[in-house]
Amino acid sequence: MLTNLEHLGLAVHDLAAATALYTTLLGTPPYKQEHVASEAVDTVFFRVGGSKIELLAGTSPESAITKFLARKPEGIHHVAFEVDDIRAEMARLKEEGFVLLNEEPKPGADNKLVCFVHPKSAVGVLVELCQTIDSADGD
């Protein structure tokens, strides 16, 4: 079950410039910066009430973010929802006919296990499911 809007992921070309802009816009500095080697991205996270903003910049030509920005302007890349049990939610969505981009959850940024739902299954929006690793059944 989706329990919370976890974060909005924003694809950016220049992470330093976007970080400065969002620090000013939100009136607070980011709480975390992280490199996710498996996805070839650098991320910066801001807290906004009970949700977060994640800025993402690709670190290689093969990065999904780099490829996204080659086709589209900077902006919203994905919407992420917190789930209590990522595997159960993946099974439920698959049974409902959604196309998942990965068969197993994988480690993501900010201490999460993640899975993505194909945008063609969700009216053009890339949806990310997130479960905090500490609550992921021993993962």
Automatic annotation (TrEMBL):
Stretches assigned to the VOC domain: 4-132
Keyword field: Isomerase, Metal-binding
PROSITE patterns: VOC (PS51819)
InterPro entries per UniProt: Glyas_Bleomycin-R_OHBP_Dase, MeMalonyl-CoA_epimerase, MMCE/EMCE_epimerase, VOC_core
Alphabetical list of Gene3D superfamilies matching this protein: 2,3-Dihydroxybiphenyl 1,2-Dioxygenase, domain 1 (3.10.180.10)
Molecular function per GO: metal ion binding; methylmalonyl-CoA epimerase activity
GO biological process: L-methylmalonyl-CoA metabolic process
Top-rank taxon, per record: Bacteria
EC identifiers of the protein: 5.1.99.1
Homology family: Belongs to the methylmalonyl-CoA epimerase family.
Name of the protein described by the UniProt record: Methylmalonyl-CoA epimerase
Organism: Hymenobacter montanus
Gene: mce
